[in-house]
């Protein structure tokens, strides 16, 4: 690798035209990426150079964004703020993977992940929101909801886990409850991770063949493809009835998991005025082609 860089220096002395100089700059940048631990590890696996470079660039960008998340967390803690981030989406949309990247380097004492199992017999007799209220953020804390009370907006009516009356009651109450939470000072962000039917099918197949992901499969997952249209109907109902100016739905195109992770982190960073934000060495403006507010016309029939 040292010889390669020496050769590049020699080439620089002989290349005079602008186009050639730009090409050398790009080549030098790529070789620098391959000097990283991640780049070399992938090179040994004989992956294509372009794919290696993309992966290393993703990891470097992710690390820089995670540095900003640490700043954000410290600001939330020092100023006793309360932040609640909801991750919703179809099965295999990449919600859990995104949360993992959000929390990877955060102080575990200052955040929680709420991933609630199906309600117990006692919980089914309680006020519907009661078991979720237990997990609302305390002062100085960020809580990540891996699915949320919006189970009653889609999963429960699709699979017959609630009555029509319970569903309608929820749909009427949730905007008022979210307004009350925000009015009380909670910062609420609602993500919908969107994927195509083809992407979901591909990811289900990967779960079946990858022993490290097999645990993610559930009976509900296996019905998700055949219930696609019904889920789409309830998803659109949820958007149209619970998307508000104070608690909008933020749609994340998650067909490319890596881009979805980067841009969703960027969106959260852009929403919160944490200390040190101006000193960031990375772009904090999310890509509107990946992350945007829900708009009825543009998101109908999408995942």
TrEMBL record:
Keywords: Kinase, Transferase. InterPro entries: P-loop_NTPase, Polyphosphate_phosphotransfera, PPK2-related, PPK2_PA0141. Its EC number is 2.7.4.-. GO terms for molecular function: polyphosphate kinase activity. It is an enzyme of class 2 (transferase). Signal peptide: none annotated. Pfam families: PPK2 (PF03976). Residues 57-278 form the Polyphosphate kinase-2-related domain. Gene3D superfamilies: P-loop containing nucleotide triphosphate hydrolases (3.40.50.300). One of its GO terms (biological process) is phosphorus metabolic process. Homotetramer. Uses inorganic polyphosphate (polyP) as a donor to convert GDP to GTP or ADP to ATP. Belongs to the polyphosphate kinase 2 (PPK2) family. Class I subfamily. This is ADP/GDP-polyphosphate phosphotransferase. It comes from Nitratifractor salsuginis (strain DSM 16511 / JCM 12458 / E9I37-1).
